[in-house]
């Protein structure tokens, strides 16, 4: 251990970075995609002499156990001298890790959709918050499908808070939530949900399920839809290509989701990104949002270190919040007050191949409003504050 630690810090040309995603457990598929994306960025950084340093990745697997993140993060910071952690998927695990990061003066790079109502000097938020995912989604689905959703979520912070905001939006529009149900994180016992949906006939199903719970629900609902072609769609803020992988073609198709990234985005930035990934990993691989998000986090971290000339968290944070970064989703800026990134949200419809056809995109990037202060004020003045354009 001492020899490895000495090697990591024997030269300023080596920067140790912790990669902390669960690659086993209830949301393992998403975690594996995130690790692959982060390591794809590491491979690019370490082969580019312009950076002047290499990344030494310290990869740990908490196994989907929220209580394991703090210990592994502490070990990475104390024993491996990591000053930056790329990681955590769930808000439960992020909030368990956050005190460790704050106490040790480190910086967490969090790159997944979350429920908002948080801003820490020790976190760079590179995932969208509700005004960048939930609000655009409901502005699309409520007038098209109806105002009586069935809400189902994983039984922890993400599920609770996103469901709460969705209920407030629905009721403010004159609608009513017909049911609000939760299942334990990782549970695959979902048949009762499909039965209740059959009975209550909602206008759409809003799913906040995570990992294998989401996969099991989509598969079970797909079996029901075989004999019910007019069954309402599943809509979500966190559904990605990796969640549909391995499902039957019938179960995969017909779901509406919002995301800052889709594999099929026809932008110059995404085309260049996919070409680089194909050159490294082979053609034909579908790039998921978790892969891209972790890749983006590692890339922005490395460019911030290069510009700062140090991996000191304060110096890196100052750089990261003071300039734009070229990313697969376009130029990204990070608010120096909240440390949240501004994003351009998209809406996609899933198909039998497990990919998403683009439905609509925001005309411009939307600044993060993690506490929904500005967003709720705008909604009082205008029911649909996010201008979206139809993709033809």
List strands and helices in order, with pairings.
Blueprint: H1 2-9, E1 14-20, H2 28-46, E2 54-60, H3 66-79, E3 84-87, H4 91-104, E4 107-110, E5 123-125, H5 134-145, E6 149-154, H6 157-172, E7 179-183, H7 191-200, E8 204-208, H8 212-225, E9 234-236, H9 241-244, H10 249-252, E10 256-259, H11 268-281, H12 289-308, H13 313-320, E11 324-325, E12 332-333, E13 346-350, E14 356-362, H14 373-381, E15 388-390
Parallel strand pairs: 1-2, 1-3, 3-4, 4-5, 6-7, 6-8, 8-9, 9-10
Antiparallel strand pairs: 10-13, 11-12, 13-14, 14-15
Helix pairs in contact: 2-12, 3-4, 5-6, 12-13
CATH topology of the largest domain: Rossmann fold
For this structure, what is the CATH homologous superfamily of the largest domain? Response regulator
Cα(first) to Cα(last) distance is 57 Å
* Shape estimate: globular
Strand coverage percent? 15-25%
> Which ranges are low-confidence, i.e. pLDDT below 50, for 5 or more consecutive residues?
1-11, 383-392
- Look at the structure and give the mean pLDDT: 92
CATH architecture of the largest domain: 3-Layer(aba) Sandwich
Helical run tally: 14
| Helix-strand pattern | HEHEHEHEEHEHEHEHEHHEHHHEEEEHE
Sheet of most strands:
8 strands, mixed
- Looking at how many chains there are and whether they match, the oligomeric state comes to single chain
């Amino acid at each position: 251990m001492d020899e490895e630690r000495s090697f990591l810090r024997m030269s300023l040309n080596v920067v140790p970075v912790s990669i902390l995603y669960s690659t086993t457990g209830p949301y393992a598929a998403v975690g594996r995609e995130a690790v692959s994306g982060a390591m794809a960025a590491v491979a690019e950084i370490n082969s580019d002499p312009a950076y002047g340093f290499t990344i030494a990745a310290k990869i740990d697997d908490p196994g989907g156990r929220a209580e394991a993140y703090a210990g592994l993060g502490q070990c990475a910071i104390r024993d491996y001298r990591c000053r930056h952690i790329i990681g955590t998927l769930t808000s439960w695990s992020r909030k368990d890790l956050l005190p460790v990061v704050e106490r040790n003066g480190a910086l967490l790079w969090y790159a997944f959709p979350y429920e908002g109502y948080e801003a820490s000097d020790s976190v760079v938020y590179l995932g969208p918050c509700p005004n960048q995912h939930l609000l655009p989604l409901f502005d699309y689905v409520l007038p098209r499908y109806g105002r009586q959703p069935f809400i189902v979520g994983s039984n922890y912070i993400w599920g609770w808070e996103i469901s709460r905001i969705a209920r407030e939006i629905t009721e403010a529009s004159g609608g009513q939530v017909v049911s609000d149900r939760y299942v334990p994180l990782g549970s695959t016992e979902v048949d009762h949900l499909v039965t209740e949906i059959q009975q209550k006939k909602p206008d759409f199903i809003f799913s906040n399920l995570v990992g294998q719970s989401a996969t099991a629900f989509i598969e079970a609902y797909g079996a029901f839809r075989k004999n019910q072609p007019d069954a309402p769609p599943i809509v979500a803020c966190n559904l990605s290509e990796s969640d549909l992988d391995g499902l039957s073609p019938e179960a995969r198709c017909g779901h509406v989701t919002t995301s800052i990234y889709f594999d099929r985005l026809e932008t110059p930035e995404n085309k260049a990104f996919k070409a680089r990934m194909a050159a490294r990993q082979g053609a034909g691989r579908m790039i998921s949002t978790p892969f891209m998000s972790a890749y983006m986090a590692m890339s922005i971290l490395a460019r911030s270190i290069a510009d700062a000339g140090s991996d000191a968290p304060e110096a890196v944070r100052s750089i990261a919040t003071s300039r734009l970064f070229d990313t697969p989703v376009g130029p990204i800026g990070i608010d120096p007050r909240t440390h949240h990134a501004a994003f351009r949200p998209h809406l996609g419809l899933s198909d039998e191949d497990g990919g998403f056809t683009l439905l609509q995109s925001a005309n411009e990037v939307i600044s993060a409003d993690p506490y929904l202060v500005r967003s709720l004020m705008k909604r009082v003045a205008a029911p649909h504050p996010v201008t979206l354009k139809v993709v033809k």
